[in-house]
Design a protein that fits this description.
Helix content: over 70%
Strand content: under 5%
Order of helices and strands: HHHH
Structural class: mainly alpha
Shape: elongated
Distance between the termini: 51 Å
Radius of gyration: 28 Å
Largest sheet: none
Number of helices: 4
Length: 103
């Protein structure tokens, strides 16, 4: 009789450990996604024009204007470039690489 209760107890402990392990894996996956989203939002917000640290300072506005003016002059001198399209095989490889990188 004692052996039966001991066996049932070990089975219950094993099931509880499996549930705990599944929960830990799920929490780990959620934290990974959360961390990825935080990094994306952090980088996206700081590089946008709406970020006050970059848009309000006069020094940065002048530096940005100086950078764009020579680039506009160069663009006027160069003939327009044709956009290169990818072959279907190359596009598929690129999509697979991006999907693997984002996962």
């Amino acid at each position: 009789m004692f052996e039966i209760f001991a066996m049932v107890g070990w089975v219950i402990v094993g099931i509880l450990l499996l549930y705990l392990w599944a929960d830990v894996r799920e929490i780990k996956r959620d934290l990974k996604n959360c961390r990825r989203d935080m990094v994306r939002n952090s980088l996206g917000g700081r590089t946008s024009e709406n970020y006050p640290g970059f848009s309000e300072e006069q020094y940065w506005k002048e530096a940005r204007q100086e950078e764009t003016e020579p680039a506009q002059r160069k663009e006027e001198k160069l003939p327009p470039k044709k956009s290169a399209s990818l072959k279907p095989g190359e596009e598929q490889v690129l999509r697979e690489i991006l999907a693997e990188f984002l996962n």
